[in-house]
Target: Putative nickel insertion protein
Amino acid sequence: MKIAYLDCASGISGDMMLGALVDAGVDLAAVQAGVDSLGLPSCTLKTEEVKKQAFRALQLTVEHEPEHAHRHLHHIEAMIEGSTLTARQRELALKIFHRLAEAEAKVHGSTIEKVHFHEVGAVDSIADIVGSAIAWDLLGVDKIACAAVPTGSGFVEIAHGRCSIPAPATAELLQGIPLAASDVDGELTTPTGAAIIAALVEEFGPLPAMSISRIGYGAGQKDFDHPNLLRLLVGETVAADAQSGSPATDSIALLETNLDDATGEALGHCVDQLWEEGALDVALTPLQMKKSRPGVLLAVQCRPDDVDALATVIFRETTTLGLRRSTLQRLILPRKAVSVDTEYGPIAGIVAQLPDGTERCSPEYDSVAKAAEKYGAALAAVQQAFQANVTNPKSINQSKR
Model:
């Protein structure tokens, strides 16, 4: 799988992002053509190789005619819809702007239709965001991962006055994203940069197992005591070692809430809905809560992109007023899906490889239950038939999982 990893030790901004993408090999002329089709005032993307604390990087700047326009979301949507961008590029650009609009609306107590884009509605920010959307599409990766994000410290001047760092919209966009400690006096992560990673990044954590093919460096405008650059690593994921059974790693989200006034039927229905919405795991644990009331802990593991959909289910189907959300790293054993031929027909199952190289085989319950019902057999008999035949290569049909 082709993957990109954002090493944002000095934070992230829109120009740093686009600079890193171009430095990693994306055609600047193709990005410029897409930006030109937006109908903005004269807008040119310029690149220059610079040094940041002795390290080279590509600095991208947007040159444009002065303007004083404050745009709403619908103005930007109209630009994008009327452009020559591909469907995928429009989708990525609109996704980023919608995340920005949601954050701005929340911090200002407004709606996404009414909120004004100030700094992020300016020509340079629009070019950075749309240009990045075009460049990500042209880069053609299957997955984007990212390191923990530093925001910087101190204060920044924005259209609404002097605000502490991270700026309100930036902080809103970074909810649920791991942040890195930083005592740098200055803004390292801007609302534009935060919106890009909030909209596009699927996994946060350390550098994943990968074979690097390209590296791009995007320079920030300011100079600090550290190299102010964003590093983009592009390559292919490296699967877990099939011989050693070394676990792979990924990031998942965990949603939790304590409930003391939910009926068993309501909880059962909620769990069913969570599975249907793509939860990786759902668990109910008995609790004794305040005033000695019996309760349950509802814990849901899911992919980061599925958090909003699953949170909606929990709020709709239970009485909870809030959810705890955290991001976790998990270890995953190499495994393969198998279909084992038995006297009860083919039974689906999973063969996992342990770190010592041995294998552990388990039949899928639904497949076992279906066969047991069809043949009028005991569940245990079908399970035993699976285990008896799983070691016979002639009985197994494999597919990677």
